[in-house]
């Protein structure tokens, strides 16, 4: 059963959704606003609407502007499939592939923003509304936003399809907002997957956001939001998850793929929780706290850093060396407890050459608490390195993950505390020889060694 507040883009009387779904959805939003004008009828008045996108390919040539509450835009499948693998496969082999492009309910972003355009110019969905109350309860569910191609970044060094640059954004939320939901989405080949400003009670759940320059950016400030059960991974230039000036953020049960410049990057975030996630990175700086992050809990996560095993992407990195730390902490009174942290890398790839990689680096602040973290550092043998040279992306990464029998111990600095960081407590997270700190201003209890 359908009603007047349920719209199917293929049944609407304005525009052709296959040619420009932006024109169609903007026309539908205009119709909703034209019909729903009263603010108080029997304690109601503006119920909003649902816009349905059936499975199919829909070009977007006009930016969709959302300025109403209680709107749900939904499809019937996130349609994700790797474009990076296809673009790094010789074109002569494409004829043998079952699919070439993402599918499901798929929006193809055909916008062409200029480099000097406003930040929102390349966004498929642009959410803005001034005044009170804040725009609320807008939902995006179960469809794909595909940026199609990356472009030359001007460096002269990178394959254009591996630059992670095109100026395109999937969802851009500019105005302060409340109780938005982004669920079941697929976002791919966008320079920015989701960018929000001033979020309150935001839910980002069960999405597949990958092969984007940046996956999820919570900017400005915000509170009381959650990022849960997502599969995501950014490119080597950007963030998989970024949060700025946030309080009460819950990040739980996500599987973060490697290749992002950072898996999780906090700036000025306070009293938030990061738990039960699996973080995988090919570079140092997989978790970064900057600008005095305070009273955050990082617990029961698995961190893994190893080297990129897939040949087409081995020339790229995030520009950080191994002294930076896998976990790089600026801030005070943070608790980093009961995490499993793995580093597996052949010594020839350690930078600077001959140095001891740093696992946890406390750079500034005071009163941080590290306890019962299990750090496993190993080095790969030559056989392990060469095993995946000619393998597919999937095979190379799986073999790299599963190969453990040829690994030997790697000498690391498990915890390094800079002079600007004081009065920290480090318990059972490193042996006596694996720490670098001033023990007169920091408390330390070594992990017991067998037979000692």
Structural notes for this entry:
- This protein has 452 residues and is mainly β.
- It is 9% helix and 39% strand.
- The chain is built from four helices and 42 strands.
- The strands form three sheets. The protein has a 16-stranded parallel sheet that branches. The protein has a 14-stranded parallel sheet with strand order 1-2-5-9-13-16-19-23-26-29-32-35-40-42, with helices on one face.
- Strand 1, helix 1 and strand 2 (49-52) form a beta-alpha-beta unit.
Tags for this model:
globular, 4 helices, 14-stranded parallel beta sheet, 42 strands, 452 residues, mainly beta, 9% helix, 16-stranded parallel beta sheet
Q: How helix-rich are the residues, as a percent range?
A: under 10%
Separate helix tally: 4
Largest sheet: 16 strands, parallel
Q: Characterize the quaternary organization of these chains.
A: single chain
Which percent range describes the beta-strand content?
Answer: 35-45%
State the distance separating the first and last CA atoms: 73 Å
Strand segment tally: 42
- Point out poorly predicted stretches: 384-390
Gross morphology: globular
Average pLDDT rating = 94
| CA gyration radius, whole angstroms | 24 Å
Broad structural category: mainly beta
